[in-house]
Amino acid sequence: MTPTTATDLAIGPGLISFIIVAAIGFALFFLIKSMNRQMRKIEVPYEREQPAAFPVREV
Predict the structure, then answer these.
(1) Residue 18 has pLDDT above 80, yes or no
(2) What's the CA gap between 42 and 54, in Å, rounded?
(3) Quick check: helix, strand or coil at residue 37?
(4) How much is the CA Rg of the chain, to the nearest whole Å?
(5) How far apart are CA 21 and CA 15, in angstroms?
(6) CA distances from 3 to 8, 28, 38, 42, 43 (A)
């Protein structure tokens, strides 16, 4: 039997870790795409269209 050294026991990230990181990347891509779609649906009122909260009385 040959003695094992620390370099023989080195463990790399592996295929499983790559698949997990890739899945997180794909999920992030689709979440950002969905968020942009939802943000486009929002109608922002302009100042001219908003009713005055505190009407100004002329003195």
Answers:
(1) yes
(2) 26
(3) helix
(4) 29
(5) 10
(6) 10, 45, 60, 66, 70
Q: First CA to last CA across the chain, in angstroms?
A: 102
Say which amino acid occupies 4: T
In whole angstroms, how far apart are CA 29 and each of 11, 20, 23, 38, 40? 30, 14, 10, 14, 17
- Residues 6 or more apart whose CB falls under 8 angstroms from that of 22 comprise none
pTM strictly above 0.85? no
- For 3, the token pair is 């003695």
Retrieve residue 45's tokens. Answer: 């009122």
